[in-house]
Design a protein that fits this description.
heterodimer, A: alpha/beta, six-stranded mixed β-sheet, four-stranded antiparallel β-sheet, 10 helices, 12 strands, 37% helix, B: alpha/beta, five-stranded parallel β-sheet, five-stranded mixed β-sheet
């Protein structure tokens, strides 16, 4: 295990929280991920980049336990992790957002973010239906956390608006809100800035950095916009055709010949 | 009601606060929505918060006469900061929070501010940018610490920590605070506000305790504002109106000030607070009416019929009821029924159902607009004022409300119109001076205390109401000697929902020409209903059918202008629709959204040239500034159209 260190902008990067060891993932005859190993350290912003179809989203699904790799091991907090059900994954303190927004369109922003608190709710069906005893106190406590998320993301004005009526950039923000409401230790973001304009990207970058900074949340993100990735990530894994072709700080990756070839194309002889 | 026998002691804001803390100890003074819940502070709690912050200021080393700048949106904490500054003998200087760093730097430098109270990271960053150039600026007190955990805190102070330090050291500091307050009186400066200025650099208007308190007292009595009333504070804190409503009048009568959760939630918060006393600029009321009209156009046929039937009846009866005129029993019942079905719920949605006194000012307001709100039973009135007068110069008394005048002189105000038509006033609220600017002070206020408003107007003979025509300096003459008053025409044009803003030129020329800004909401909705596709503001603005519609509006205005004896020369001969919205960030509007005529004329001189030389289209490129200060440019080819003008009405010999 490596020692913790302090970044140039004053954040502390701790010990390894998750380690991927020789992961291989196949769908029938198609190999999505081939023998990939890398680690994620506490408090860092870890980016996964690569061209379309490189296997980035599959990698994210392996990290959160949704896919079970045929080969290799996932180590989480120093223990080998075995196959789990989705709710068990959520309880481990891992939350995520999706490439294609997956919100409840007919529900308000508030209710959508409230669903992020589900894993923290303990009161029974009876108590909840009757709005009595524990359920009431629990809802108040959860609502307070949700309101803090709303405040943090500056979406007070759309608190009661059904998310289906919101513009795309706001929907992305609500989705981040739902993930944050779960108070995750590890936050997975699948293309949080896809389809956004420059201003929305800047806002989103600021929120991601603030989450990392204020709450010390470890963040793994997939992103296409190289400028954004190079600006906000501490370390970057580069994938191409399911293989890892680079891993390191943004500067190291930027100067890696394999990465340049993968992105700019190379003459096949 | 206020005990008038103690008025002698109520001559500073801190003394008014002390009175309120006793007299209204347990009634709410400030409310703010935060984390989705309305938080409130009683006058007793408000007094304690301000006291703690004042002690904190003493720890910082604030001296009497220092200026403390306040940059933030309407939040109780900043209103407290103003009175806390007054408590220690300093002068609060609220700034426009959306101003760019350089604009702020000018003001901070001009008033030699030593401390700034800033809302959040955004404002602190602006201060960090300019701090190096400002010799006097020593520290920034911030309210919201998020994002600033790793900032160098040597010149940064947390608002709440400062209050806590103040509380901890109360025993040792109280004597000093008492001593400072004892030396204050009616002549002590209460606040300094920078006028946005349609020309030149902003000027610091110095207002004394006497100015603010006498004005507040007179106007509270005029409109019977008492401790049970409430307002929503949402206009910029740097604007005199907000200071008078949210501090002056609030402290005098002890009413409650509500603060919205965020600028975007204002409309929803308004509906929740339901204020009894409400101010909004005409733009706001226009926007609200437009949104109601748009939603009614989208409604089903029955609902639309019901709405129109009720509103047509209410338009006749509503104003009569407000003015206390006699109304038949049947009409009263119909109006009541309409209230039950339409006007009541509508008022509630708009957040205006409890409004007892509503004011608008700043720009002329269209008769239709006025009638709409008054027909709902909302007592909407007009006032005329400026920063230099502590707002109030004239206002409309209940029962004497008209769309084309701004009312009779406010309590204690004397009016005079000079030969050129310019309006002068003398009042208790008339400002002390412009800070560090004796020349401007002398040009504006004479030795007898008469202040020039810069507006041209006249007093109507039969009812004593003041009517404003235009800015005195904008009033000119056409080549043939006819009077030219651009605002007169602009206001008529702006009464059309499709027109957001317009600038008319013509001084010294043969004819008048106009720039027009379309209203994206209204025209966009119209385009949608008429299957007109567009991808941008620019494209919509240049659409031939939009031009047709605007041309019809312009010609209608010309027909109406032709009827005016004095101003019939101001008909618009040619016009164009601008490819961008006039914007304060580009310097085209003031921060209070007033048109800066000369700057626009200079910036678009190519367009004005084309309007006068007869060409029918022109290519132009315009620089635009984004809110963060970056610049870009947009280009477009604009069409220029001729409009039909009408024969001038002959001036009666």
């Amino acid at each position: 295990m490596q020692d913790s260190y302090v970044t140039a902008d004053g954040r502390t990067i701790g010990a390894t929280v998750m380690e991927m060891k020789n992961i291989t993932l196949r769908f029938g005859g198609v190999t999505a991920i081939k023998d990939i190993s890398f680690d994620i350290r506490e408090g860092e912003v870890r980016a996964i980049i690569g061209p379309n179809g490189a296997g980035k989203s599959s990698m994210l699904n392996v990290i959160n336990g949704f896919y079970h790799p045929q080969e290799g091991e996932v180590w989480f907090h120093g223990k080998r992790r075995h196959a789990m059900k989705p709710h068990q994954i959520a309880k481990q303190g891992i939350a995520r957002t999706f490439q294609n927004i997956a919100l409840f369109k007919g529900m308000s922003t508030l209710d959508n973010i409230m669903t992020g608190r589900l894993t923290h709710m303990k009161s029974g069906l009876f108590s909840q239906t009757m709005w009595w005893g524990g359920a009431q106190a629990e809802e108040v406590a959860n609502r307070e956390i949700v309101e803090k998320v709303i405040h943090f993301l500056e979406i007070q004005a759309i608190r009661k608006t059904p998310v289906g009526r919101l513009p795309y950039g706001f929907q992305k923000r609500v989705e981040l809100g739902r993930a944050l409401a779960a108070e995750p230790k590890l936050l997975l973001l699948d293309e949080p800035m896809a389809g956004m304009n420059v201003e929305e990207k800047e806002d989103m970058s600021r929120f991601i950095l603030d989450v990392n900074d204020e709450f010390g949340t470890t963040i793994v993100l997939i992103e296409h916009d190289m400028g954004v990735v190079m600006d906000i990530a501490d370390r970057v894994v580069v994938m191409d055709y399911g293989k890892k072709i680079g891993d390191g700080t943004p500067d190291e990756v930027r100067n890696n010949q394999d990465v340049i070839d993968a992105y700019l194309g190379v003459a096949h002889d | 009601m206020t005990d008038t026998t103690t008025v002698g002691a109520l001559d500073t804001m801190p003394r008014l606060l002390a009175r309120n803390a006793k007299a209204y100890a347990n009634t709410p003074a400030y409310r703010e929505k935060e984390y989705g819940i309305w938080q409130s502070w009683t006058w007793g709690q408000t007094s304690e918060e301000i006291h703690a912050l004042a002690l904190g200021f003493l720890i910082l080393g604030v001296k009497p006469g220092d200026h403390i700048a306040i940059i933030g949106r309407n939040r109780p904490y900043f209103y407290w900061a103003m009175v806390a500054a007054q408590s220690v003998g300093a002068v609060p200087v609220p700034l426009y929070r959306d101003a760019v760093a350089e604009e702020m730097a000018y003001v901070l430098d001009h008033c030699s501010a030593r401390f700034v109270i800033a809302e959040d990271q955004e404002q602190v960053d602006k201060m960090a940018d300019v701090m190096g150039d400002l010799e006097t600026l020593e520290g920034v007190v911030f309210l919201d610490p998020s994002g600033m955990r790793k900032y160098d805190k040597s010149a940064l102070f947390d608002y709440r920590e400062l209050q806590q330090k103040g509380r901890d050291q109360e025993a040792t500091l109280q004597a000093e605070l008492d001593k400072r307050q004892a030396t204050q009186g009616p002549d002590t400066t209460c606040v300094m506000l920078y006028t946005s200025g349609t020309t030149g650099r902003p000027k610091g208007v110095v207002l004394s305790n006497y100015n603010i308190i006498e004005t507040s007292k007179g106007t509270c009595e005029f409109d019977h504002l008492v401790a049970g009333d409430s307002v929503l504070a949402y206009m910029p804190m740097a604007w005199i109106g907000d200071f008078i409503f949210s501090i002056g009048q609030a402290y005098w009568s002890g009413f409650c000030v509500g603060c919205p959760e965020s600028p975007e939630t204002m409309q929803a918060d308004l509906a929740e607070v339901g204020p009894t006393y409400f101010f909004a600029p005409p733009r706001y009321f226009e926007g609200l009416l437009t949104s109601v009209q748009i939603r009614m156009e989208d409604a089903g046929r029955f609902k639309r019929w019901l709405f129109n039937t009720v509103m047509n009846h209410a338009k006749v009866i509503g104003p009569k009821l407000l003015d206390g005129k006699s109304v038949g029993l049947l009409d009263r019942m119909k109006y009541w029924l309409g209230g039950l079905l339409i006007t009541g719920p509508l008022k509630n949605t708009l957040g205006l159902s409890r409004v007892r006194v509503g004011y608008t000012a700043g720009e002329a307001i269209g008769p239709e607009l006025f009638d709409f709100y008054r027909s709902l039973g909302i007592n909407l009135k007009q006032l005329y004022g400026q920063t230099e007068a502590s707002v109030f110069i004239t206002q409309q008394p209940d029962g004497e409300v008209r769309a084309d005048t701004v009312g009779t002189p406010s309590p204690g105000v004397e009016l005079r119109i000079d030969d050129s038509g310019e309006v002068f006033y003398r009042s208790p609220g008339a400002f002390v001076k412009y800070y560090k600017n004796p020349k401007s002070t002398k040009d504006t206020k004479d030795k007898d205390g008469w202040v020039a408003t810069g507006d041209a107007g006249f007093i109507e003979k039969d009812n004593g109401h003041l009517r404003i025509i235009d800015r005195a300096k904008d009033v000119g003459k056409l080549k043939d000697g006819a009077m030219f008053a651009p605002k007169f025409v602009e206001n008529k044009l702006k009464f059309f929902t499709s027109v957001l803003e317009t600038v008319v030129f013509g001084n010294g020329k043969d004819t008048c020409v106009a720039f027009i800004n379309i209203d994206l909401t209204a025209v966009g909705n119209w385009a949608e209903r008429n299957n007109i596709a567009y991808s941008s503001y620019q494209e919509l603005a240049a659409h031939p059918q939009v031009y047709e519609m605007i041309q019809a509006n312009v010609e209608e205005v010309n027909a109406s202008v032709a009827q005016d004896e004095m101003l019939s020369g101001c008909q618009i001969a040619r016009f164009l629709i601008l490819h961008k919205e006039l914007d304060a960030d580009d310097g085209e509007l003031t921060r209070t959204q007033k048109v800066r005529r000369n700057i626009i004329a200079e910036k678009y001189d190519d367009l004005i040239g084309a309007l006068y030389d007869g060409t029918t289209s022109i290519f132009t490129e315009t620089e635009v500034t984004y809110e963060d200060g970056r610049k870009g440019s947009i280009s477009a080819t604009l069409e220029i159209r001729d409009a039909v003008t009408f024969a001038r009405k002959k001036v009666a010999a």
